[in-house]
Amino acid sequence: MLRRYNKLTIEVKKIISYNLNGIRAALGKDLIGWLKVENPDMLCIQETKASSDQFDTRIFEELGYEHYWFSAEKKGYSGVGILTKLKPDKIIYGMDNPTYDSEGRVLQADFGDVSLISVYFPSGTSGDARQDFKMDFLEDFHKYLKNLRKTRPNLIVSGDYNICHKPIDINYPKKHEQMSGYLPEERAWVDQFVADGFVDTFREFNKESNQYSWWSYRSGARPKNLGWRIDYHMVTDSLKSKLVNAKILQQVVHSDHCPVVVEIDF
Fold first, then answer.
1. Considering the entire predicted model, what is its pTM?
2. Tens of pLDDT, residues 31-63
3. CB environment 198-234: b (16+ within 10 A), e (fewer)
4. Structurally, how many domains does the chain consist of?
5. Which CATH number belongs to the domain containing residue 62 in this structure?
6. Is there a contact between 78 and 120 (Cβ–Cβ < 8 Å)?
7. Count of other CB atoms within 10 angstroms of residue 153
8. What is the span of the domain harbouring residue 113?
9. Do 104 and 79 touch, CB atoms closer than 8 A?
10. Spatial separation of the C-alpha atoms in residues 259 and 44, rounded to whole Å
11. Is there a contact between 221 and 257 (Cβ–Cβ < 8 Å)?
12. What residues are labeled active site?
């Protein structure tokens, strides 16, 4: 997509991140019809819950997408993907850590001097053991990105972070202070992540409350907009000046999440 600003033509890429909570289920809810209309240049997918031999990938090729998948060893669990109309120079599967790579959580595509990462952070809602696993992942993923930035300084880290950063990002914040996804130590991790040079792209353009990307299936949370903003496009501050727009597509329903968008000058 070409746009002209102040007589300067720039090449804007629309990148969407979407936790599908099962790609096969989403395909059954006309994901392809939506994709044809929305037409992103790149789509980062989380929680595929399938390997690429369990669904027809040709439907993405027919829309002009290269497609890459990194599945969990456990069937029907986790998994990430990247669809892109711009052919990547390189694809990197995982973060060279078998503990997390066995769960299919990180997939990287390099385009020139920019790297796009689709990431699915662990959830800690099932108990203390998984919360501990989540906190370990946060520390190790942050270290991984710090090292990656030595050679790939321009990063777009897109996905389901499973953390609400600030009170504005969650309904009734006081009510959720002791819940995984809004724990003080998780929010402090995001504080440090941002302090280390990452930009929350959505908040560069929208400071309003009630802007969510996930809703529980319980108690009619979505119609009541009792949601959480846990899906992000975080970019290194080296790309901040390249941001054009960011938004949340709250009306799109194939999942308990909705798509989040960033537009950036590549």
1. 0.95
2. 999 999 999 999 999 999 999 999 999 999 999
3. bbbbbbeeeeeeebbbbbeeeeebbeeebbbbbbbbb
4. 1
5. 3.60.10.10
6. yes
7. 15
8. 2-265
9. yes
10. 10
11. no
12. 160
Is 5's pLDDT higher than 80?
A: no
Secondary structure of 54-82 in the HEC alphabet? HCCCHHHHCCCCEEEEECCCCCCCCCEEE
103-123 pLDDT per residue, tens: 999 999 999 999 999 999 999
pLDDT tens digits for range 171-208: 999 999 999 999 999 999 999 999 999 999 999 999 99
| 3-state SS record for the chain | CEEEECCEEEEEEEEEEEECCCHHHHHCCCHHHHHHHHCCCEEEEECCCCCHHHCCCHHHHCCCCEEEEECCCCCCCCCEEEEECCCCCEEEECCCCHHHHCCCCEEEEEECCEEEEEEECCCCCCCHHHHHHHHHHHHHHHHHHHHHCCCCCEEEEEEECCCCCCHHHECCHHHHCCCCCCCHHHHHHHHHHHHCCEEEHHHHHCCCCCCCCEECCHHHCCCCCCEECCEEEEEEHHHHHHEEEEEECCCCCCCCECCEEEEEEC
